[in-house]
Design brief:
Its EC number is 6.2.1.3. GO terms for molecular function: long-chain fatty acid-CoA ligase activity. This is Long-chain fatty acid--CoA ligase. Keywords: Ligase. It holds the Pfam family AMP-binding_C. The chain has a seven-stranded mixed beta sheet with strand order 8-7-6-4-5-9-10, with helices on both faces. Strands 1, 17, 18, 19, 20 and 21 form a six-stranded antiparallel beta sheet that branches. It is built from 16 helices and 26 strands. The protein is an alpha/beta fold. Helices cover 30% and strands 23% of the residues. Among the domains are: 154 residues, Rossmann fold (3-Layer(aba) Sandwich); 100 residues, ANL, C-terminal domain (GMP Synthetase, Chain A, domain 3).
Length: 570
């Protein structure tokens, strides 16, 4: 049997089709709507259905689309035009959703950022994408304001997300008591500069209909990722890419009830996974999207009392925490029919615990930012296979090849590098033609860097990663980026960063460090140094001091040997 699984061939070359859930077609329809057009269609179909919920306050679809139009006009008055990059540095909040679609409505390009990134991390990305305008959580505004003048966007719009909370909660946050002050400090702050505009100042009249929108092949989003190797770079995702992936998700779950589902937005919208599942997929089917600025079991408990979830995309630690709360009688999850896990391995024990308390399904998928991001999934039915990442999505082809020579195919059941092709595959890396050529082959095949095996019936199991990317908590960490920070410490002579198993099937960032002669360093001092330069999930959880690092004949650090060394010490 060949190891090329071609979505365009006859069904007998796609053995997994017999495992598809009932009603799932092997191909999606042609993509005909841009992302703002898909939102507009939902607003026309479900004008009075709730689109967004935030701490109990709701926004209907017709109201959401009106706000998008009003924000788009405000952005246009500030000079935003088609093709311009607009940076979003926001947590999950209604303004994030409005800003995302308002930028796209103008044909401009959204660049998503983690608002908890350090100034150093943000600077690298802003230098690369050269955004003309940034829409920023007021708590993060100081980091943007400190960017060098030639990097800082011309216009900065600040967002106070508490203004989208119910009135009584806004009043409670202003009370002169310690608890209120502490809560307010977490949620909002005074903008760093008086020159910054408020989000509310953008919202005027609606955008004239004559203003042209984007085309399907236009860039919608630059999503920064470490890719298969190296420092973060912007993956170019078009409207067609992202819309196709939302359509593939819709095809994968024929049991969804359009206009009636309740999605819980516990995944960050700035992450490719949260972006597709919540910002594009949920909005395209008229779902109610309940937004959480951060994942917190207590917030989920409160929301579930009046808006019980029916669809909950997440990562294994989220499912574990919620399932344990449900087992203790603190939370009713019996309304959740579908849960899709991604970004990190899903333990079978988590599946069993979740399905016990919900009665619904928890299935694992596989994706990467360069695939918008979902490419494979376990069928949402009895044929699902825990421990596997599933089978190709509709309209998706896979191939298993020799990692050192992608022209050579690997036999069924043998480990090889997974390659993908489909309408969701990205168009390349922003301003990085060499990286693009290395990852995206001329015939449209995407090299994933993941080593997999494929069973005779088409189920894929990830066995290793050829790339050195570390995935921790669902986020990608480039070892090179962390090493660069470590080597800037005056007492560190050499450093190597690798992943180590955490004990729950996940990974953690670990560092092997050689100190300079005569220097004395403690592990916690190293971590403290990193925290000022890296966001929390990139900071090494384990630091080991070693006399030297293993290197190849040409002087390259042998990370695999470093990892083995740390494993023996562990």
């Amino acid at each position: 049997m060949t190891a090329v699984f071609d979505g365009a061939r006859a069904d007998d070359s796609r053995p997994w089709l017999t495992s598809y859930a009932e009603g799932v077609r092997p191909e999606i329809d042609p993509v005909e709507q841009t992302l703002p057009e898909a939102l507009k269609a939902s607003a026309q179909r479900f004008p009075n259905h709730v689109a967004l919920e935030f701490f109990g306050r709701t926004t209907k679809y017709k109201e959401l689309y009106e706000q998008v139009d009003r924000a788009a006009l405000g952005l246009r008055k500030l000079g935003v035009r088609a093709g311009d990059r607009v940076a979003l540095v926001l947590p999950n909040c209604p303004q994030h959703v409005v800003a995302f679609y308002a930028v796209l409505r103008l044909g401009a390009v959204v660049v998503e950022h983690n608002p908890l990134y350090t100034e150093r991390e943000l600077r690298h990305q802003f230098e690369d994408h050269e955004a003309t305008l940034a829409i920023v959580w007021d708590v993060a505004s100081e980091k943007i304001d400190r960017l060098p003048e030639d990097v800082r966007p011309q216009h900065i719009v600040t967002v106070n997300m508490t203004k989208e909370m119910p009135t009584l909660q806004q009043i409670a946050l202003r009370l002169p008591v310690p608890a209120a002050r502490a809560a307010r400090k977490k949620l909002t702050a005074r903008p760093a500069s008086k020159a910054m505009r408020s989000w509310e100042s953008l919202l005027g009249k609606r955008l004239p209909k004559r203003v042209a929108g984007p085309k399907l092949d236009d860039i919608a989003v630059l999503q920064y990722t470490s890719g298969t190797t190296g420092r973060p770079k912007g993956a170019i995702l078009t409207h067609a890419n992202l819309r196709a992936n939302a359509m593939q998700g819709r095809e994968w779950l024929p049991g969804l009830r359009e206009g009636d589902e309740v999605f819980y937005g516990v995944l960050p919208l700035f992450h490719a996974y949260g972006l597709t599942l919540c910002l594009t997929f949920a909005m395209s089917i008229g779902a109610r999207l309940v937004l959480f600025p951060t994942f917190d079991v207590g917030l989920v408990k409160k929301a579930a009392k009046h808006s019980p979830p029916t669809f909950l995309p997440g990562v294994p630690p989220i499912y574990d925490q919620l399932a344990r709360a449900a087992l203790q009688g603190e939370l009713d999850l019996s309304t959740v029919r579908f849960a899709i896990s991604g970004a990190m391995p899903l333990p079978v024990s988590t599946v069993q615990r979740w399905e016990e308390v919900t009665g619904g399904l928890l299935v694992e998928g596989y994706g990467m930012t360069e695939a918008s991001p979902v490419a494979l999934g376990n069928p949402a039915g009895p044929s699902r296979r825990p421990g596997s990442v599933g089978v190709p999505f509709p309209s998706t082809e896979i191939r298993v090849v020799d990692p050192d020579n992608p022209a050579v195919e690997i036999g069924v059941g043998e480990p090889g590098e997974l390659m993908l092709r489909g309408p969701q595959v990205f168009k390349g890396y922003w301003k990085r033609p060499e990286d693009t050529a290395e990852t995206l082959l001329q015939d449209g095949w995407l090299r994933t860097g993941d080593i997999v095996t494929v069973s005779a019936d088409g189920f894929v199991t990830v066995v290793d990663r050829r790339k050195e990317l570390i995935i921790t908590g669902g986020f990608n960490v480039s070892p090179s980026e962390v090493e660069e920070v470590l080597l800037s410490h005056p007492d560190i002579e050499d450093a190597a960063v690798v992943s180590l198993p955490r004990g729950d099937g996940a990974e953690m960032v670990a560092a092997a460090i050689v100190t300079r002669s005569g220097a004395h360093l403690e592990s916690e001092a190293v971590r403290t140094f990193c925290r000022t330069r890296l966001t929390a999930y990139k900071v090494p959880k384990r630091v080991e001091f070693v006399p030297e690092l293993p290197r190849s004949m040409v002087g390259k650090v042998l990370r695999r040997e470093v990892r083995e060394l740390l494993l023996t010490k562990q």
